[in-house]
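## Example pair
The file below holds two records. Each record gives the amino-acid sequence first, followed by its structure token line.
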Amino acid sequence: MARFPFSAIVGQDEMKLALLIAAVDPTIGGVMVFGDRGTGKSTAARALANLLPPIMVMDGCRFGCSPESPRACPGPCEATKASKRAVPFVDLPLGATEDRVLGSLDLERALRTGEKVFEPGLLARAHRGFLYIDEINLLEDHLVDLLLDVAASGENVVEREGLSVRHKARFVLIGSGNPEEGELRPQLLDRFGLSVEVRTPRAIEDRVEIMRRCAAHDADSEAFSAAWGEEDDKVLNQIARGQKRLAKMDVPDDVLVDAARLCSAIGVDGLRGELTLMRAARAYAALKGAKLVRREHLLHI
């Protein structure tokens, strides 16, 4: 079954904008979506995967290494060519073991050949892409600690069974959850650059339209996706153009002052708030096709 199109999601504009901003600038620090059940949290996150421009990856590389930095690969990797691949979008299930997340010794190969080879985990698969965790507030504490370490350093270090492996693991963390099922640890919440609260639509027109679109998708997902293909292509092009504009996006001093005053007024501890706010404003301005960040971009965030 084809995934539900991103453009076909009714309402939830703040959630969709937060995901688009993270797609334009992965250094934002991830997106946390908290809200009621059945509000399209996981649907929007998965639909985002279809909107991401492809990336160049070394052929056969198990760590998703870029041809611009092939030496960063811990190997074994003998690739000499690169090709376009879809941006990784990896689900981390709540019941995942530590070995599955971090990676482990390839026991089958070790028993067959006696060779010790590292089998990459979910973090390696998510490198240069997105790591999605549904019901992240129910994730086991030890996995939360592992994610915090890797997310902060951008590297995954595994030392076990006579192996010592270090590889890049830079990804955008997307989490969703229902606050009624449990609170999110403050340390993990602090890892997310953007946080969005979603609510069940109250307008009758919106609720009816949601039912219509869901029924059409269930009846023929391929036809429904094709019908929304043009709209999704527009969003994909918007993301691609935004990514190109981002590096050239200027931030005037008066906007920097506004960001500092805003964070100071609400009592933000440290400077992470200002930095994240400016990154988000730059990404939003790039999405809108602006040449520099203006106050309205800052206020919209």
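Second record, same layout:
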Amino acid sequence: MKVATELNHAPITRTKDQPLIYLVDDDPVFLTLIQSELSSMAKVRTRAFSSGESCLKEMHKNPSMVVLDYELASDNPDNMNGVEVLRKIKESNPETEVVMLSGWDDVNIAVASMKFGAYDYVIKNESALINIKNRTKNIFKKFQILERLAQEKMYKYYALGLIVLIGTFIFVLQWLVKP
């Protein structure tokens, strides 16, 4: 069964106010549950994919975050698994945070996911939806902190430039006024 490639019809662009989250899972029921849980968060847009390959084709739209299932190749051995998709996402979009999902409590999958840049690893169990929502909130808090730090750094450079400009102006004035 194929899942609709886009369940929300909002424009697909990354904005400060409406971050875009890609959801990738070959289980349409779980995919719908994740989308429902995340859409309860204000100002979040989601787009759902039933395969890693279809998600990768849309990475040029620069999502803020991807929730990615590990077991994507279950019905088609040619499909990439979640870790393979994660590697490709991080190659093309290193700033996009990826939360890996798995029905298996497997340390090897978790370690491989983290090794290739996953933000976190969530096991599909009764608390998975809450865990995904919490990870999403944490990722967005991280983005806000990084944005604030970048602004503060920019202000420091502006202040330094202004000091240099004033100093140069004073030097030139003194040079021009000299008898």
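Notes on the second record: The CA atoms of residues 159 and 165 lie 10 Å apart. The radius of gyration is 22 Å.
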